[in-house]
Amino acid sequence: LGPQLVFFMIAIGVFLTAMAAFRTPVIALMPDLTPSPLRSQANGIINLMGGVGTLLATLAGGLLYGVGRVVPFVFGGLVMAIAVSMLFFFVKEKKGAATESSADEEGAADAVGALRAIKTVSPDARRSLALLLLAIFCWFVGYNAVETFLTSYGVSELGMSIGRATLLMGVASLAFLAFAVPAGYIAARLGRRRTIITGLTIFGSLLLFNFFLQDARMIWAVLGIGGAGWALVNINSLPMVLDTAETDADVGAYTGFYYIASQLAAVAGPMINGYIVQWGGGDYNLIFIVTPFFFLLAVLCMLGVTRGEAR
Fold first, then answer.
1. Distances (CA, A) of 270 to 114, 141, 152, 203, 285
2. Does residue 30 contact residue 43 with C-beta atoms inside 8 Å?
3. What's the pLDDT tens digit per position in 239-283?
4. pLDDT given for residue 23 in this prediction
5. Where are the alpha helices (DSSP H) in the chain?
6. Which are the contacts of 73, defined by CB distance < 8 A and separation ≥ 6?
7. The model's pTM
8. Amino acid 26: pLDDT
9. How far from 174 is each of 52, 69, 223, CA to CA, in Å?
10. Residues ≥6 apart with Cβ < 8 Å to 274
11. For a pLDDT cut of 90, what percent of the chain falls above it?
C-alpha cells in the first residue's frame, strides 16, 4: 500500500468513528425536544432535510470537484462547522432531560448501558421491542435487495442503458422525500403500527406485481408509489422504537437499538441478497420476490408489537 492510500484509509476510519459517535446523540435530541405525539412528524422533517442535504451535496460536490479536487472536502468541512455551531448556540435541551439523555446516549454505545435499559422495562415492553427491532431488520434487508440490484435489473432484464437504469432508484428516493412529512401526519391519525404495515403492504405488493409484469414503462410508477409507501415505514419506525421505552430517560439507548438493527441489516442484507441472486443464476428479477418476502416477515413481526404508539 502506498503512503497516500494508508493516510486516506486512516482519515476515513477517523471520520466514520466520529460520525458514529455523534449520530446517535444528535438523533436522540429529537425526542428530547419533541413531545411523543409529534415525533413522527418531526422525524419526517428530519428525513426531508437530510434528503435535501444529500441531494444538494451530490450536485454541489460534482461542480466543486471541477474547481479543484480539494474544494469539495473544504466545503464539506465548512458546512459541518456551521452546522455544529448552529447546534451549539441555537438548540437548547430541556433541563433535566439533557442530563438523563446524555447518560443514555453514552450507554447506547456499550453493552452495559443497553442491558441496563432493557432490564428496567416490563416483559411486555421487552417482547414488543424485540419484535419491532426484528421487523426493522427484516424490512431493511428487503429494501437493500432493491437498493443494491435495481440498476443491474434495469440493464440486464429491461435492456436499459446504465445511465437510465441508475435513475430508477432516484425515482423512489424522490417519492420518499416528497412523502416524508405527510407520512408523519398520516401516522398521527391512523397510528404508527397501522401506517407501517400499510406502507410495507403497498410497496411489497407493487414489487411482487412487477415480478410478473417486467415492463420498462410501469417500473417507474411502481417505484414512485413504492417510495411513498417506504416513507410510511421508515419515517415512523424510529419514533415507534423511542416510544417503546417506558421513560424518556432511555431514548438515547433506544435510538442505539434502532441503529443496531438497521446497521446489522446493512451488513447482512448485501450478503443474503447476493447469495440469492447468485443461486438464481444471476436472475435480478428475483429481488422482486426477495423484498416482498422480507416485508411479509416484517409485517408478521409488527402484528405482535403492542408498544410504540404516541403517548
1. 27, 8, 14, 20, 16
2. yes
3. 999 888 777 667 778 888 898 899 899 889 888 988 998 898 888
4. 74
5. 3-33, 39-67, 71-90, 97-107, 111-119, 123-156, 162-165, 167-190, 192-213, 218-242, 251-279, 287-303
6. none
7. 0.80
8. 77
9. 10, 28, 10
10. 148
11. 32
Per the CB < 8 A criterion, the answer to whether 255 and 24 are in contact is yes
Judged by average pLDDT, the poorest of 34-38, 65-69, 203-207 is 65-69
List, in order, residues 6 or more apart from 302 with CB less than 8 Å away: 131, 132, 135, 193, 196, 197, 200
Of the CA atoms within 13 Å of residue 146, those in its CB half-sphere come to: 30
For residue 1, with 0-12 CB atoms within 10 Å meaning exposed, 13-18 middle and 19 or more buried, which class applies? exposed
| Residues 6 or more apart whose Cβ sits within 8 Å of residue 204 | 142, 291, 292, 295, 296
What cell was used for 100? 438523563
Minimal CA–CA distance to 258: which of 247, 244, 273, 272? 244
Q: Give yes or no for residue 101 having a pLDDT over 50.
A: no
Q: How far apart are CA 118 and CA 257, in angstroms?
A: 10
Q: Residue 182's closest CA among 28, 41, 39?
A: 41
